[in-house]
Write a structure and sequence with these properties.
The chain contains six helices and three strands. By secondary structure, it is mainly α. It has a three-stranded antiparallel β-sheet with strand order 1-3-2.
Length: 153
């Protein structure tokens, strides 16, 4: 199926549309995985540590991707989600640019040999007080990312 979508608006409005579409896709994937007959054995579908390692090593990471991943892992150690504004501040990027970095890293994972076509690399959330999107790398992936970042320099 091919879909052509034309969006007009500010970068922030378009980013909000993209985030809503991504959230709908995640909700759809979650609904498809859940079945009234059998509960999934895994709580969420995240890429394996092996796929993450392959994705990281496929080609050099940009500095923005390195900072984004480090920021996510640092917060993950404390069990906290990172707000989009915090990631923007850490990387020095606008929200639109940050969405590009997040998406491009997702595309890197999807293009990695062995990727299952369904798994995510991020946990998504929302700060109830500010209604801002938040992200967190699963703990299993933070260890892989931290090890890679420490040894790749």
């Amino acid at each position: 199926m091919e879909l052509t979508l034309v969006c007009k608006g500010t970068p922030e409005e378009i980013a909000a549309i993209l985030e809503a579409v991504q959230a709908a896709k995640i909700a759809q994937t979650t609904n498809q995985k859940s079945s009234p007959r059998a509960a999934p054995s895994e709580p969420a579908g995240f890429v394996s540590a092996e796929i993450m390692q392959r994705a990281l090593a496929r080609r050099p990471l940009t500095e923005n991707t390195r900072v984004m991943l480090k920021t996510l892992c640092d917060a993950g150690d404390a069990g906290n989600y990172v707000s989009r504004s915090t990631l923007c501040e850490a990387t020095g990027l606008t929200l639109t640019q940050l969405n590009g970095v997040l998406g491009k890293f997702g595309a890197r994972i999807m293009g990695t040999n062995g990727y299952d076509g369904r798994s995510s690399y991020l946990e998504h959330g929302r700060n109830e007080l500010t209604d801002e999107g938040t992200y967190r790398l699963p703990e299993t992936l933070c260890g892989v990312v931290q090890h890679f970042l420490e040894n790749a320099e």
